[in-house]
Amino acid sequence: MNNQVKIKASNKSIIFNYIRHNPKTFKAELAEITGLTFVAVKNIVSELLELNLIVEDGTKKSETGRKSMAYKVNHEYAYTMGVHISALVIKTAVLDMCGHIVYKQSIPMTSEADSQLALIDSLYRQIEDTIVKSKVDKNKICGIGIGVPGPLNFETGMIYQPPNIPSLAFLPLKSIIEKQFSYPTYVDKDANVIALGEYWAGSAKGYSSTVYIDADLGIGSGIVYDGKIFHGENDGAGEIGHMTIDINGPHCNCGSFGCLETIASGLALVRNVNDALSRNTKSNMQDAYIKKGHIDINALIEAANNDDPLAVVTLSKSASNLGIAIGSLINLMDPQVIVVGGLLSYSYKPYVSIAKEMADRKKLQSYTNNQVVASGLAEDAGLIGASQMVLNDFFEPHLNLKSN
Ligand SMILES: [Zn+2]
Fold it and tell me: How many angstroms separate the alpha carbon of residue 155 from the centre of ligand 1?
């Protein structure tokens, strides 16, 4: 490819990706955003229309008051399969080219969590069933994206030993799925995939640098920089759960002490609240604790939502410790937006605002533009991000089908 052809291919890619991100885009807007001439934009748009990658999207009034034709991605051009595996459920969905969910399924993990064969079998059946029920032509699916708890090697798709799902240990997930379904398959850490989902369609839409923090049974994060997942040297970027908050704090399963995860994760909260109840701390959870001998995360959240003082203090402390970590993260990376998601943030309403308030106190006061916001996609973020992993790779060769 000579330089001129390379520049043209890159302009095409910039324009196409802008339209992907911004439906109802018109040519004058594209010229303004890219700095290209109107004629150059017009030629590229014609080419994208010819390739059937974009379609007309009605007319839109420009700033001058003139009506112009708007464009969007052709959502039927191809489809993707998104998969999100967590310790509790396996979610699968068929999504269209715009990242909209056509059909989704969510099946609880039961025996699969302990047996690798049962997990593989159930995953195969669920993917197959989701494709059938979506009524999308199998041949129009262009790839499978999978978000899964790490640690893992995202290039080979080999999972190492995720602490909460023993049956995933040393599973070559990418190669077994490619062998079974013959679709190109992409595997990445769940928090990375969710971050990508938030970047494309959620609370981080319109920002180029974002960190997603998953405040769930464990605590993890994913970083998207310039529209791409940032993996780091050992594919380990984003392990905010192991940021030290209290050097004299509890022992962590990573070998260190006082990591954020030992203080603020759902598992740590359950441990702390059961300890407190065993010492007869006053709480509305005492009856249930005596009856069952144990309080789980859902009972803790429910109690907090009913203003039980022990539960409220437990969740508020978690949010404020998370805020301390977010403050450090802002000082280190200065990202445009930090999105907080995960069970703790969805189910206890004050969670994100407590974390934000603490982060605002802890970050350098000269940093005024960093947003701390709640997830905009909640439970679908992983599926949408998984689909985008496939699309990011799929479009480039399709953009250059015509040699010029
Ligand atoms: Zn740790």
Answer: 25
In a domain, 402, yes or no: no
> What are the residues whose beta carbons fall under 8 Å from the beta carbon of 179, sequence distance 6 or more?
none
Tally of residues, the chain: 404
Q: What residues flank ion ligand 1 with Cβ within 5 A?
A: 242, 252, 254, 256, 259
User: Ligand 1: distance of its center to the CA of 166 in Å?
Assistant: 18
Q: How far away, in angstroms, is 43 Cα from ligand 1 center? A: 54
Q: Which domain holds residue 53?
A: 3-74
**209-215 β-sheet, strand order:** 228-229, 219-225, 209-215, 337-341, 371-374
> What is the pairing mode between strands 67-73 and 25-26?
antiparallel
Question: For residue 338, which phi and psi values (nearest 5 degrees)?
Answer: -115, 120
- The reply to whether 83 and 185 lie within a common domain is yes
pLDDT in tens, 95-119: 999 889 999 999 998 766 678 999 9
Close Cβ partners of 367 (under 8 Å, ≥ 6 residues apart): 330, 331, 334
Within-domain flag for 145: yes
pLDDT for 241-296, tens place per residue? 999 999 999 999 889 999 999 999 999 999 999 999 999 999 999 999 999 999 99
